Amino acid sequence: MEEKEVKEKQVNKMGPGDFVIMRVVGQGAFGKVFLVRRKGFDENDESDGIFAMKVMRKDTIIKKNHVDYMRAERDILTKVDHPFIVQLRYSFQTKSKLYLILDFINGGHLFFHLYRQGIFSEDQARVYTAEIVSAVSHLHERGIVHRDLKPENILMDSDGHVMLTDFGMAKEIDESSRSNSMCGTTEYMAPEILQSKGHNKDADWWSVGVLLYEMLTGQPPYTHANRQKLQQKITKEKFKLPPFLTSEAHSLLKALLQKEPGRRLGSGPTGADEIKKHKWFKSVNWKKLDEREFKPKFKPDVTGTDCTANFDQCWLAMPADDSPAPTPTSGEHFHGYTYVAPNPWLSNESL
């Protein structure tokens, strides 16, 4: 039997039993994220066989009517390949659950470090924002809108680079289309989403503006304990520009946090290039940035590929088990979910 056929059979048989669960490192609406080690991994594998395994319950997905989102997440992850986006390595399913096997990014969440430091300097925030802009630009070039850019969805790797993750709310939208779904986390949602006016890629640039504001000041530009009042503030009120920031930072924040999407920086025909050319990014060499040649000054304290020191104790304390779930009555929702990342034996296709 040829090597290619052997590999295909191995992939088709792959399932939860091929991975040893080590710890819980996150939790979402549909299940948990585990730190796992692949059994019998290739010794030449730089990851040491260590991955993040995102497990989602089919019954909960169907009940919440999120089947299309979960299928889109898997499909979108197979189409992106970028130095600042977490890569999907495998996907498979059982009768009751969906599984995504992703690179384990062990530096923790970017905002875990922000909360520790209080605020970032403009120089530090510039690097992180530039890497986020580069990642979001890559998505937009492929017709993908992330729609859920928020602190929990930005990780930091062991070298100090940011990595965009969680594509559960992402959607493929062509240039002339609008989506009317209400999705995301309120503090980071663009006014046009909250007002159900229809949105496209411009909504992501608003969220980038909110993230930058939070990095530089320690909190989002609009906050309120009451969700309805928070929405009113985002859609109607002006935000305050802290006096300790440079005029260039003020200029960029005002341009990104523009309530009218058509006037927002990045909304024009050249999109992300408008943002990259802004004077606040003058010192950024975008080519070197994308080649990861720029070395961040801050590196998280990481002891190895399976280090979890930078993750929240509330997750790490959870029982590390993939508990049983009921099997949905219909099995047609997730046909063709299995995937393996390209390698010398397999093409970039679903199996």
Detail the topology: elements first, then pairings.
Blueprint: H1 3-13, E1 19-27, E2 32-38, E3 50-57, H2 58-63, H3 67-77, E4 88-93, E5 97-103, H4 110-117, H5 122-141, E6 144-145, E7 154-156, E8 162-164, E9 171-172, H6 191-194, H7 202-217, H8 227-236, H9 247-256, H10 272-276, H11 286-290, H12 313-316, E10 339-340
Antiparallel strand pairs: 1-2, 2-3, 3-5, 4-5, 4-10, 6-9, 7-8
What brief labels describe this structure?
disordered C terminus; 12 helices; disordered N terminus; 351 residues
Describe the structure.
ATP binds at residue 54. It holds the Pfam family Pkinase_C. Residues 19-281 form the Protein kinase domain. One of its GO terms (biological process) is response to cold. By secondary structure, the chain is an alpha+beta fold. Helix content is 31%, strand content 14%. It has 12 helices and 10 strands. The chain has helices spanning 3-13, 58-63, 67-77, 110-117, 122-141, 191-194, 202-217, 227-236, 247-256, 272-276, 286-290, 313-316, and strands spanning 19-27, 32-38, 50-57, 88-93, 97-103, 144-145, 154-156, 162-164, 171-172, 339-340. A 6-stranded antiparallel beta sheet has the order 1-2-3-5-4-10. It has a two-stranded antiparallel sheet with strand order 6-9. Strand 4 and strand 5 (97-103) form a beta hairpin.
